[in-house]
Amino acid sequence: MKVGVLTGGGDCPGLNAVIRSVVRKGIQEYAFDFVGLRDGWLGALEGNVVPLDISRVRGILPRGGTILGSSRTNPFKHEDGLRRIEDTLAAHNVDALVVIGGEDTLSVATELSHQGINLVGVPKTIDNDVFGTDYTFGFDTAVGVATEAIDRLHTTAESHMRTLVVEVMGRHSGWIALHAGIAGGGNVILIPERPFDIDQVCAWVQSRFKINYAPIVVVAEGAVPKEGQMILKDQTLDEFGHVRLSGIGEWLAREIEGRTGKDARTTVLGHIQRGGTPSAFDRWLATRFGLHAVDAVRDGDFGVMVALRGTQIIRLPLAEATAQTKRVNPSLYDEFEVFFG
Ligand code: F6P
């Protein structure tokens, strides 16, 4: 059996740990051969295939990023995408794929599986928004980075008695904002799932100043104000209605400063949350996902995704996992709203 491995979408700490465990178990236990497809679906389209053996995966467990490269290429947006992928797999005698990716990459995998390609999906993303799994690897590392940043910002906020707004990643879901906001003791947490009221946010901020406390506002990049609370004229919205030009964090700081009369600053954490060495939890989860994915290949159980449920790794149909996004449950958010202000 020859297995191809690819990583698609935004990079994320733990990708190399999956590649390593897939290749090691596949070779040592099942005598599989492996190749890597470079840069996600792009490599599958272009026939960019590289050898993958035990020596190639040595020492990569703690390394961030992906040794295979990644891209956001969607083969169905390319002419003859399916045929080109089939040609690549045939040319290299690849019997099955292990596809490591987030929503977009796994949606393509779902479609390819319907078209008859043998593959197993592994969910990754710092956003933790893949449906069907309790956690994706990468999330824990991102939350750790964001929490440390919030801890540091508290002292600066207090020293200058100003509001500090921290913008974290999360276009469609507020998992990072919620977890890091709670862990870091943020005073306000704003997530895409719950359009916020800017008047209420400013009231919360004011209430902190009244007790001589400098507020920290944690906002997910995809959070939006309630309808009617329009963004300043010099900003533009993207296709989802999210503030794009200078970001929601910057907009919030300007609004808060204007309304409270006190300094406000924004820190956008950006790709720092995706880079660097994975946390122990992410290495553990990524390694287990890899071991179970290669077992699914051995079983000929294709069209499935491995997922974490409690402490168990399960398999579920890819079509089920990619049918929806895993959003923050409203009751989880409400639980902590009591701390705001
Ligand atoms: O999906 C992961 C993610 O990091 C999102 O949180 C973020 O919105 C997006 O990727 C950024 O993508 P890119 O690196 O392509 O700009």
TrEMBL record:
It is found in: Cytoplasm. GO terms for molecular function: 6-phosphofructokinase activity; AMP binding; ATP binding; diphosphate-fructose-6-phosphate 1-phosphotransferase activity; fructose-6-phosphate binding; identical protein binding; metal ion binding; monosaccharide binding. Its main location: cytoplasm. The active site is at 127 (proton acceptor). The record marks 104 as: Important for catalytic activity and substrate specificity. The record marks 124 as: Important for catalytic activity. GO terms for cellular component: 6-phosphofructokinase complex. It comes from Streptomyces regalis. Its EC number is 2.7.1.90. Pathway: Carbohydrate degradation; glycolysis; D-glyceraldehyde 3-phosphate and glycerone phosphate from D-glucose: step 3/4. Substrate binds at residues 125-127, 162, 169-171, 221, 265, 271-274. Residues 2-297 form the Phosphofructokinase domain. It catalyses: beta-D-fructose 6-phosphate + diphosphate = beta-D-fructose 1,6-bisphosphate + phosphate + H(+). One of its GO terms (biological process) is canonical glycolysis. Homodimer or homotetramer. This is Pyrophosphate--fructose 6-phosphate 1-phosphotransferase. Catalyzes the phosphorylation of D-fructose 6-phosphate, the first committing step of glycolysis. Uses inorganic phosphate (PPi) as phosphoryl donor instead of ATP like common ATP-dependent phosphofructokinases (ATP-PFKs), which renders the reaction reversible, and can thus function both in glycolysis and gluconeogenesis. Consistently, PPi-PFK can replace the enzymes of both the forward (ATP-PFK) and reverse (fructose-bisphosphatase (FBPase)) reactions.
